[in-house]
Amino acid sequence: MEMERTYIMIKPDGVQRGLVGNIVQRFEQRGYQLQALKLFQADEALLRQHYCDLVEKKFFPDLLSYMLSGPVCCMVWQGENAVKMGRQMLGATNPQESLPGTIRGDFSIVVGRNICHGSDSAENAEKEIALWFKDGEVVSWEDHSKAWVYE
Ligand code: DAT
Ligand code: MG
């Protein structure tokens, strides 16, 4: 079994629109294990690190002001293939291409207000978890439903 962690973040629009509970519920219902959760106001330095691959893009200033516009909800979810499945649950980056049933496909219309972030590789997930959480904020715990979720 490929147990993996992913960093999932609800962006300021998702928090403002009251979608935190719905998004947490989707991951819980699927069987993923919550290991960290906090509401957090990001600053520019943190976002420049988080989006280091995108700082040269034309849309970066808009992305930065969007991500600074209010608190985000930072989460760590663990489970089999959590990175890939997490991205599937989020849906395509551009909501115009996100399928219904995905978070973006159910709740958003434009790429600049696409509700959520999910790590794109296991390696980046570990980097993002270290970037957004301090020691002690991520909790490893025994999940009693595990035997009912996995063979
Ligand atoms: P994802 O968030 O699906 O991993 P990404 O890492 O390529 O996508 O981009 C990060 C965010 O930047 C994305 O969620 C929304 C914004 N973005 C990406 N491409 C964009 C574009 N062409 N125009 C405007 N915003 C864009
Ligand atoms: Mg990305």
Detailed description of the structure:
Its cofactor is Mg(2+). One of its GO terms (biological process) is CTP biosynthetic process. The active site is at 117 (pros-phosphohistidine intermediate). Residues 3-140 form the Nucleoside diphosphate kinase-like domain. By secondary structure, the chain is an alpha+beta fold. It has eight helices and four strands. The chain has helices at residues 12-16, 20-30, 44-50, 60-68, 82-90, 103-107, 122-132, 146-149, and strands at residues 3-10, 33-40, 72-80, 116-118. It has a four-stranded antiparallel sheet with strand order 2-3-1-4. Bound molecules: 2'-deoxyadenosine-5'-diphosphate and magnesium ion. 2'-deoxyadenosine-5'-diphosphate (DAT) is lined by residues 54, 59, 63, 93, 111-112, 114, 117, 120.
